[in-house]
Design brief:
The protein has a single domain, classed as Winged helix-like DNA-binding domain superfamily/Winged helix DNA-binding domain (Arc Repressor Mutant, subunit A, Orthogonal Bundle), CATH 1.10.10. 61% of the residues lie in helices and 8% in strands. It contains six helices and three strands, in the order ααβααββαα. It has a three-stranded antiparallel sheet with strand order 1-3-2. The longest helix is centred in the N-terminal third of the chain and has 22 residues. The N and C termini lie far apart (45 Å).
Amino acid sequence: MTKIYDLPGHQIRRLHQISVALFAAQTKAAGFDLTPVQYGTLSTVRDHPGIDQATLAGLIAHDRVTIGGVISRLEARGYLTRTVRKDDRRARSLTLTERGESLLKTIQPAIRATQDQMMAPLNEDERAEFMRLIGRLTETGNRFSRAPYENCME
């Protein structure tokens, strides 16, 4: 019988747990209260001002229903605004506030420290190879996800 530690799925789940724990520790130590999904949301809204909620969900590969709660919490904290789109009254445009912009600028050292800490055991070539392989796995497995990545901006 195969040991659980020999299964890629188990190791990927563990790496995700470690990644989230490192993110929480680094951002908390820097004085921030933000989850990885909230950070991804704010970063994507910054990069695509006026994006709608459905497109945002596709770009960060997150469930459309759940992302609504994430957006509500970020809006309540003053990091972004939602406005009704003129071309589609059912859709909302998302825009960062000055507070959201400021947060993204000041949190960058903690984000970089998280990534560096997670990848610390690997040398530069191993890091590049890891990113190449994990990119291939996520790209080819995307269609199996309950919230697939959809690059709606191309």
